[in-house]
TrEMBL record:
It comes from Actinomadura macrotermitis. Part of the ABC transporter FtsEX involved in cellular division. Has ATPase activity. Gene3D superfamilies: 3.30.70.260, P-loop containing nucleotide triphosphate hydrolases. One of its GO terms (biological process) is amino acid transport. One of its GO terms (molecular function) is ATP binding. The keyword Translocase applies. Keywords: Amino-acid transport, ATP-binding, Cell membrane, Hydrolase, Membrane, Nucleotide-binding, Translocase, Transport. Its EC number is 3.6.3.-. It is an enzyme of class 3 (hydrolase). This is Methionine import ATP-binding protein MetN.
């Protein structure tokens, strides 16, 4: 649904050039929720704003719903943009208009006749659970309700794609959870494709099917969230399951064992200890709910260096677990 190839955007001001987006490739499939995670200044907003051409890239290709956006004429681009909704951190509501008036606004701009407008506004307010607040003004509703208005307004043109620019960053954790749930619900009910940018791991953990970590304008890793979490060395996994830098003692094996779904329900530590009659020391770890599945990572220490634990490590891998070994061999330790 969204296909971006070799996207590059350079800002030039006062003789200085900042490469905000540097050769980014991105594919978001239809009906997928994809999150771009990164710190302030990583280039996330610029990337997002390039997807509907609020920002024009220096080079690259942007295809949304089969249309090459950079090849469209003015009128065609306006129509294509109506099919790409956008929500923002600070909602951007018109304070002089009611909730219903705010949702009606884009319909007026699109030239939807008055008679049709009222029915469509009612439908949109129902979709985001705000029917009872139609006559309220933005100052009279909570932050979460304001974002619901923002979402209803973004859906006015029946978009296939929703771009979310830090939509939950100004909200408390409970409200964040309810807005993320709403996005997931709309994604399922309407088949909406969502591309979101965030600096919150929690957002990725709760609703994203795919994710990328962005730094200095580049994607440092990208893929389905599940694959990233199981990939040894993944930064996403490290952020989700923070463990200190491994410092194995000589003659021991320290391994990070990642488990998910079915494998999360099996008692692998006691099975390992029983099968090989060894003491398994647990050094740390955590279990999280990711996209409705339990995923966890446990750091364990086994007696003996990694060579002597080959069978034990194979036992874990055979059980469907991902195993990343940090332990040093006696030979390495002696160097
Ligand atoms: N209009 C602009 N002119 C010049 N430089 C800009 C402009 N907009 C962004 N930048 C620079 O481009 C880089 C990426 O900024 P961008 O806002 O895309 O990052 P971000 O990851 O979204 O961060 P934040 O969450 O703080 O907005 C930064 O170094 C920023 O200073």
């Amino acid at each position: 649904m969204i296909q971006i190839d070799k996207l590059r955007k350079v800002y030039r001001s006062r003789g200085r050039a900042v490469t905000a987006v540097d050769d980014v490739d991105l594919t978001v499939g239809e009906g997928e929720i994809f999150g771009v995670l990164g710190r302030s200044g990583a280039g996330k907003s610029t990337l997002l704003r390039c997807v509907n051409l609020l920002e024009r890239p220096d080079s690259g290709r942007i295809e949304v719903d089969g249309q090459d956006l950079l090849a469209l004429s003015g009128g065609e681009l306006r129509r294509a943009r109506q099919r790409i909704g956008m929500i923002h951190q600070h909602f951007g509501l018109l304070s002089s208009r009611t909730v219903a008036g705010n949702v009606a606004f884009p319909l007026e701009v699109m030239g939807v006749p008055r008679g049709e407008r009222a029915a469509r506004v009612a439908e949109l307010l129902d979709l985001v659970g705000l029917t009872d607040h139609a006559r309220a003004y933005p100052a009279q509703i909570s932050g979460g309700q304001k974002q619901r208005v923002g979402i209803a307004r973004a859906l006015a043109g029946r978009p296939k794609v929703l771009l979310s620019d830090e939509a939950t960053s100004a909200l408390d954790p409970e409200t964040t959870a309810s807005i993320l749930e709403l996005l997931r619900d709309l994604n399922r009910r309407l088949g909406l494709t969502v591309l979101l940018i965030t600096h919150e791991m929690d957002v990725v953990k709760r609703i994203c099917d795919g994710a990328a970590i962005m730094r200095d304008g580049r994607f440092v890793e990208s893929g389905p969230v599940r694959d990233l979490l199981l990939r040894p060395g993944s930064e996403l996994a490290r952020d989700l399951f923070p463990l200190p830098a491994p410092d194995p003692r000589p003659g021991t094996t320290v391994a990070d064992v990642t488990f998910e779904g079915d494998s999360a329900d099996r008692p692998f530590v006691s099975s390992l200890a029983r099968t090989y009659a060894i003491d398994v020391n647990i050094l740390g770890g955590a279990v999280e709910e990711v996209g409705g599945t339990r995923v966890g990572r446990l750091r364990v220490e086994l007696p003996g260096d990694p060579e002597t634990n080959a069978a034990q490590l194979a036992h874990l891998r055979d059980a469907g677990l991902t195993v990343e070994v940090h332990g040093r061999s006696e030979v390495e330790a002696a160097r």
